[in-house]
Amino acid sequence: MSTGLVVVVIAFLASVMTGLALRSPDAAVRATLEHEPAAATSLALQASQGSDPEVQDAAVRSVVARQFRGIPLRIAQTAFVPEVAVAGGGSATLLVASDALEERARLISGRWPASTSGPGAGEAAVDTDFARTHRLGLGDTAVLSGPDAPVTVTVVGIWHPIAPASAAWLGLTSGAGATDGRAIVSEALAGRAGDGTSVQWVLTPDADRVTAVQLPALQTGLAGIADALSDDSTAAASPFSSSGQALATTAAMGRSVVAVRAVIPIPLSVLAVCAVIALVLLGRLLADARLVETRLLRSRGVTLPWLARATAAESGAVALLAVTVGTAAAQVVLLPLTGGPAVGLPGAVDVLLPPLAALVAAVAAATLTTVLSARSLTDAPGVVEAGRGRTAVSAGLAVLAIIAAAVALWRFVVFSSSTASGDGGGIDPAGVVAPAAVLSAIALLGLSLFGPAAGAVERLAGRARGVAGVLPARQVGRGIALFSGPVALIVLTVGALTFAAGYAGTFSGFLRDSTVLTTGGTVRADLGAGGSPDDGSDLSGADRLEREGVTASPAIVDDATIGDTDASVIVMDTRRLPALVPVGGYLLDTGALAASLPGTAGLPGADLPAGTRSVALRATAASASGAAAPTQMTVWMATTAGEAVPISARPAASGDVVIALPESVGRRLVAVDVTTESAGATDVTVTVTGLPVASKPAGAWSLAPTAFGAETSFRAAGTGRASAALLAGRVTTRFLPDAEPTLRVAVTTALAADDSLRVGQQIDVNSPVGGLTATVDRIVPALPGTTAERAVLADYSAVTAQLLRTTPSVARATSIWAAGADTAALERAVSRIAGADAVVTTAEGDFVSRFLGGAVLSIWLGAAGCALLAVAAVAAAISSALRLRRGEVVVLRAVGLSAKQQAWTRRAEVIGVSAAAALFGLAGGVVVVLLVGNTLARLSVVTAPSTLSVQGRVDPLGMAAGLLALLAALAVAVWAYGRSVRRQAHDTAHREETR
Length: 995
Prior knowledge:
Blueprint: H1 2-35, H2 38-41, E1 43-48, H3 53-67, E2 73-85, E3 91-96, H4 99-103, E4 105-110, E5 123-127, H5 128-133, E6 141-145, E7 150-161, E8 182-185, H6 187-193, E9 198-205, H7 215-231, E10 241-243, H8 246-263, H9 265-289, H10 291-299, H11 304-338, H12 345-374, H13 395-420, H14 429-432, H15 434-462, H16 470-478, H17 480-519, E11 523-526, H18 542-547, E12 551-562, E13 565-572, H19 577-580, H20 590-596, E14 606-607, E15 614-622, E16 628-638, E17 644-649, E18 656-660, E19 668-689, E20 701-703, E21 715-716, E22 721-737, E23 744-748, H21 749-755, E24 762-766, E25 772-780, E26 791-795, H22 796-806, E27 815-819, H23 823-834, E28 839-842, H24 846-884, H25 886-894, H26 899-940, H27 956-986
Parallel strand pairs: 3-8, 5-7, 13-26, 23-25
Antiparallel strand pairs: 1-9, 1-10, 2-3, 2-9, 4-7, 5-8, 6-7, 11-27, 11-28, 12-13, 12-24, 12-27, 14-19, 15-18, 15-19, 16-17, 16-19, 19-22, 20-22, 21-22, 23-26, 24-25
Helix pairs in contact: 1-8, 1-9, 1-11, 1-12, 1-24, 3-7, 7-8, 8-24, 9-12, 9-15, 9-17, 9-24, 11-12, 13-15, 13-26, 15-16, 15-17, 15-26, 16-26, 17-24, 17-26, 17-27, 24-27, 26-27
């Protein structure tokens, strides 16, 4: 019965862990494709439309089929004109009408336009955004500025997309390319209104059918599809361009699958070792219980082969029922977690291999122990059984185990290094079992030291008077064979539990911190915006979040070039880094960056009172000859984070202008632009008066001579004054507070190594943000807001200050980073402020958790399984001791030991052995965690930059719960042991002393 229950546990745990190893990658891949944004899982391929669109589409699909042979893909095709100007201002994206396009949208009113030339060739169905922006309804007309002549279209329908976030709309969302919206028109109308029609194919792996085993082929296909299409003359009317992060996501999923299959074999291996030990112990217990019967059968002529067959048949029947129950229970547990098994050979291996292994192990253990016990025809015990041996295992075996563990550990280091660098594509079987091999070696080392340690304790206890101390020590020393199995299992259990707590704590801590670091905060909104701001509506909204009590910063993350090296540039309010990215100094010293990168007084400018609703200025232009007059004035208002936006107005004839300030803009005036027109005036002087006093340390307002190019004719002529010898045409001048803030940046170690950068060195950063000249202030392993290993970080206010001095405009924020205690509430607030088109993500590590959640569960299941088997082994040892030492109770009773004393000594034996084994297992688990814990956690978090260091941690709740559960089970067994011994001592019917 006990063997059957143990086999049920073994089959159940082995089946669950094997199912998690083989099925969870498929479930994680499909969940990732289903829940990640389309930009992360899809690839958009664009080219010019060919002369025959249907032939081109067929050619593209043929190339895709060859490139992704056997991989299920969803393909969405759309023909479009990226941007067409609208008379009166604004622009639109024109989508060519098709059945597939109309299936992706829902009409709110009206009908779809005719898709062919004819009476409906001037019809259009516009989306709700375009209709709202241009105040269009059914029957209204809009004029598109075609390349040859204006094109008038009549609105016949208003629509919105059924699933705006679906992959089919990738790159064609409302507002893409700073347009006002989208209009569905006929192919002929699109040709007349635009400079050329483009066509896009969006490739998305089918989330319902893609499997983890297909990821390498999918990655290869994604990497080469653009070149393959460009090389096909029928498919490519022009070279193909691509957008979307499907390739990077696929590569990350592939590395995650490798991590899963590197972690789960560890608890499986430890469980296998514990299972074999437990089954051998139970088999020996059964063989000892039947020893008299076995010897009787042997005396009557039963041969060992016959006995082996009979034992195998008996144990096989019990084990078969047990593995059936355990496997069925495992499948019930796995179905909601990972779904059903795969079809074919992988599914058969998944379902059948664990129970078959458990069945074979159970039958082999029972058969071998029975045969070995039956080989001797006498009752003479062996050396160890008789108490004359002092070692449970030989020193040679322990040394061999240590050597094997060292080799496995070396292979693990090689495997983890190649996987982290991206060179390894598979699993090294010898490497991934290294933690289990080290634990097993430590258990064997413990067994080899068990006898000598017991002897030493016995000698120390023998110096004391009485038998209370010496008797338990002496009995343990003489009963090494009885206690060796429980000792090994307790060592493995506590070691596995320590490793589980160390890995889970390190993994979860590193995942949390690295995700917060790469996200830039608890919540991040990517706005899908770019370019330069036009007015107050182009602010990110981070200042509004700040007013609601949230720590938030506008941010820009874009590609850059430093020297000859491609890198990422990150611009954000570095003063808020410690609150946004509280990751501790082991990843990034955010406090040091917040202290050194921002300027001492922020963005130079003049702070207006909080209730200010307008700015009143006067601009005049005097000349020696000819006429010159200011025609436009623009004030640049900035938030405390450094976001600046322009607000313009036309001055009166006197030069006076009152510029109304929207509620949304900041109240720091940082620059004033004056546009002056003249047909050819000479000795022109432009003067701006009414400028408020700039905050210290900034000085008086003066000309920024390079803001609109180095060739400007104006030169500084005093506070708020600029002069030019000759003014012909329209020229803009900019006045700023007199200050030259230094732009200090932090760079990553990888970038510093590539370009031989050092602290204090000046660098040029070229990016869509603008050309920046900066000084390297710090070199750090990684930077917030990006996974790029080569990156540069600058303060938002400092960048804005430099751009206002060197370029006509500044860069618009592309994202918002925010942090708060309530992630769900913060996500809702950020989504509300960022708008419907923003992609909002949280730093919860969902991508990694989908893959590694099953691995972490397996680690804990392995430790729990070892604990159950250890308790079963202790119970088996207790049962064997009660039977084998029955006569000892009678003898000790005869020499004067009471039942209470005997119960205490027996309990002391188990308590002492268990405590010593637990301490040794704890030390072994700590050794394993120190050797491989950080490396394994680093390997598991594939989204973290490889330059980040890992800080070892422990899951205290899991560790405490596991140890308490093990302690409680052992306490129950020890209590029951003492009670049974007392019952034997009170039994006077059994008189061993007179037998």
